[in-house]
Amino acid sequence: MFLEVVWRQGGGLGAPRIVEEGEPSGRHCARRVGLCIVERIQEAERGKFIEYTIDKGPWPTSYNRARVSFEALDGGTLVTWRSNFTQLSSRVSILG
Length: 96
Fold this sequence. Notes:
This protein is mainly beta. The protein has one helix spanning 2-8, and strands at 17-20, 30-33, 37-45, 49-56, 61-73, 76-87.
């Protein structure tokens, strides 16, 4: 559901445009979001997690990899979103 609702339809920086389809699991799928930022799914396991990187765009990091994990919890799903990044400059503040 995450792939269809969040990755393909939108969320975050506006409506995305898929620039590469990738594999059925979502792996290698790339999308362009607001500010011409390109995100690419690097690893994915249906119903368990998605890991993606920011490949291009005016984002103030030299490295950015995020993991979105899904865990069944009390009849629903716990979603944990973690991001690791290397900031380009100490003068730029990233809130998250």
